[in-house]
Write a structure and sequence with these properties.
mainly alpha
Length: 261
């Protein structure tokens, strides 16, 4: 029972933090110092639970894109989503082949949280100086694909923060438009990462995964992420992301201060 509670808490943490620009991976790694370490498969699959929540929220938009491919604007948007995904997928496989694994130390997470906070301030500052634009350019698509890899390599960066604010700095300085593209490209990215990790675990003899724990965390993350994303999409229509920047800087600063202990 205590382990089940820990799994549910980790799923809730994932659901809240996956799409808020505060780093789900960073929060999970820190939480696991107290709640018990989990496998890479657990961490990646519960992220897919959060992605499922976004899929449910954006199902009308996804249906519009899937059925409206004859429309030039829809087709252009789909091709840009595909380009971002392919850049992430190819580079992600390369990183995996090189044997990269997430660090479990706290200090790189703390630094990434602080740096990411200033990154948010910069994006908000520069986008405010330009007229609003909802356009997704090919440059935005390429840079968002690269940003997803940066976030995967450096825990604490936040995939949503890296992609949203890269899009804003690259020209899509309308918050809802940048957020939508970042979230939509995350759907195939995280589902592919989860599928890849599950297949890798199944193909390794002797490796035992607690699939009940993974399923429980997945469900907890899905429900919590649905609530968190619904709130976020309403919030950013009338607010900047600066509150998240302050949170990142404060949280990262506290972690750096506590490191000697």
């Amino acid at each position: 029972m205590p382990d089940l509670v820990n799994v549910i808490l980790l799923g809730i943490i994932e659901g809240i933090t996956e799409f808020l620009p505060i780093s789900s991976t960073g929060h999970l790694l820190i939480a696991q110092h107290w709640l018990g370490a989990r496998s890479d498969a657990f961490n990646i699959v519960i992220q897919a639970g959060a992605i499922l929540a976004v899929t449910l929220i954006y199902w009308k938009r996804l249906w519009q894109l899937a059925t409206g491919w004859r429309d030039a604007d829809n087709r252009d948007y789909l091709l840009k989503l595909l380009l971002s995904f392919l850049i992430t997928a190819v580079l992600g496989l390369l990183v995996a082949k090189l044997g990269f694994s997430l660090p479990d130390q706290v200090w790189p997470i703390a630094i990434a949280l602080v740096v990411g906070g200033f990154w948010i301030f910069a994006a908000e500052h520069w986008s405010a100086k330009r007229p609003p634009s909802t356009r997704i350019t090919w440059t935005v698509a390429i840079l968002v694909g690269l940003a997803q890899i940066v976030a995967a390599i450096f825990p604490g960066t936040s995939r949503s923060a890296a992609t949203i604010f890269t899009a804003m700095l690259a020209g899509t300085n309308d918050r809802p438009a940048a957020t939508e593209f970042a979230f939509l490209v995350g759907i195939p990215t995280m589902f592919a990462a989860s599928g890849y990790e599950i297949l890798k675990q199944l193909n390794q003899p002797g490796v035992q995964e607690d699939w009940l724990a993974i399923a429980t965390g997945f469900l907890a993350a899905t429900v919590t992420a649905f609530i968190a994303v619904k709130w976020l999409l309403g919030y950013i229509r009338t607010h900047t992301f600066n509150a998240f920047a302050w949170y990142r800087i404060a949280f990262g600063g506290v972690l750096l201060l506590l490191l000697p202990r």
